[in-house]
Each structure stands twice: as C-alpha cells, then as structure tokens.
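Model it.
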Amino acid sequence: MMERALGHFYKQVVMWRSSPADLAWVFVYPFVGLVSLGFFVYFLVGSGAPMESFMFIFAGVIVWNFYDISQRAVTYGITYEMWSDSLKHFFSTTSTEKDYVLGNSAFGFLSSLLALVLVGGIGYFMFGFNIFLAGAYLLLACFSVFLFATAVGLIIDYFIITKGSKYMSLIWISTGIIMIFSGVYYPVGVLPEPVKSISYLLPSTHAIQSIRSSIVSDFSTANITIALSFMLSAIYMAAGSLTPIIAPCIG
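Modeled.
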C-alpha cells in the first residue's frame, strides 16, 4: 500500500518540479499575498488602526495559505489525470482510493508546511510578526485545517469524476467562498447573522481563532476553539470519505 501511495506522492513531486506555475503556489503566491497585505496593514496602522491588526490579519492569511495548498494537492491529483487523458489508467491499476488520498494529501501537507515556514520567516523579517509564537497551537490548527481541506478536496474530486470537468471550477471557487466565511481578514462577528452561523460550522474559523488567541495568551479560548476545530474537521472528513455513498442519495 505504501508503495502505491508513494507513487501518487512522487507524481505530484514530478509535476511540481516541471511546472513553474505549480512551484509558484508554494514559493511565490503566498509571499505576494503576505507582502501586499503587510503594506496594507501598515497603511491601516498609520491611519489609526491598532498594531494588533498585524497579528489578526497575518494569522488568518498564513493559515489560509495552508488550507489553499492542502486542498489543491488533493484536487490536482485528479485534474492531472484528466488533463493528460489518463484517468482511465488510474482506475485500471491496483492503486486504490486510499492510496490516492494518502499520497496526494501527504504531498499537500508537506508542501503546505514548507510554505508556512517560508512565509512565517518572511513575515518576521519584513514586518516583525512571529507566527511561531503560537507554538503548538499553530501546528494543531494547521493540521486541523489540513484535514478540512482534504475533506473538501475529496468532495470536489467526486463531483469532477462523476459529473465531468465542468465541476473543476469548484477547486478555485470553493477556496474563495470558504475564506469569506472563515474570518481570515476580519472577525466573523461582523458578518450578518445567517452567515455568521455558517462560519461557526467551519473548522477553519476556529483554527484561525485558536492561533490568534494563543498569541495574546488567551489559552482558555485557544483550547476551546482548537477542540471545536478538530471536532468539525473529523465530521467533514467523514463526509468527504462517504461522499460516493451520500451524494447519490441527495441528488
């Protein structure tokens, strides 16, 4: 099983090394987002916003990069097969769905972790914000977000395989939609009531909050929110794993 899973992992590595666009998702785009927002926050602070704005926005952006790269690895595993017209070969091999999930999600987690370290370092040296002050809460929150991203990726993969390439746009659309509800740039309390309720059902909302709380030493809130994040991620992972069974029943 491990050999087959490593095969999926290695294919991601090969595609990654041969494609400047894929490398950019780890080595370029996260920096662009962080630096542009960093100067935007400088502007806000210069206009009277509190210095805590750096912590609030940077924590959200750094964790959101982790989500984006993790989900992309799981969904791109399928799109690579479709773009090369080799999806039928995937189903004719001895490789199983578990091998696919394990190999691609492992690549997503490690590449997300690499981006986290690089962007965290840039954030510290350019803007003086140290995301690593969150300590264990940072790792726990990112792992919870990784599970959530993997679950969403599996759901998207199901619709791509069963409904066709027209559902491929979900790869990019879903990331933006979930970001709106997760309070990456703002507290979810500013959202309208129906939308706010949706936010509290997302693991990413609580994961980001746990990091923000731990940085300001509000460990009671950090403990509660990280526990909620993992609980919700487990539910989403179960839903993602059962999508082939659940989806036909709901149309």
